[in-house]
Amino acid sequence: MASTNLLTLLLLPLILPVSYAATFNIVNQCSYTVWAAAIPGGGKQLDKGQTWTINVNASTTGGRVWARTGCNIDSSGHGSCQTGDCNGLLQCQAYGKPPNTLAEFALNQYANLDYIDISLVDGFNVPMDFSPTGGCARGIRCSADIIGKCPAQLKTTGGCNNPCTVFKTNEYCCTSGSCQATDYSKFFKNLCSDAYSYPKDDQTSTFTCPAGTNYKVTFCP
Question: In whole angstroms, what is the distance from residue 26 CA to residue 149 CA?
Fold first, then answer.
């Protein structure tokens, strides 16, 4: 009996799936304060040069990190932000309100890979770099002056809206599951070629790293 139990213990690592958690270092290099947000993770005010570290559980899907701008949040953690607001809370419990530049991730998925991207599907508010800190060479960056060059129809306070937010049609929102690039999505793609520009922009915008990789998200790289 004892030998059987010993054999089971020895084989256990071969039977159970490997779990990899990830650490995300979130850095504000902007010349202004941002209120960093993460799902999962919550939120934190970051003045220029400050860093926030979060640990994300293995196999997390639907993860996001973004910056909120123009916030007025009181000592109880309630208020509002011009961009990226998450129901008026400092500690976000839901995704932010567009426009907001997104670092998106799903950890330890198919073939033990992390899937990462920068998305402009919810518009743009702050330049961003989303890079692995080890175990993977490929990072993603969107640092163009999208707000300064934003088409008039998409301009809003503190950011540049994605056309779906403005026009709410299938052409821009892909609600039927079938859509193509548009002049507006091409505007985003031309300035940030690595970033998602519309919901079906998968082939040029999704990147992978081995599960167990840690990451750094930099605002205003």
Answer: 26
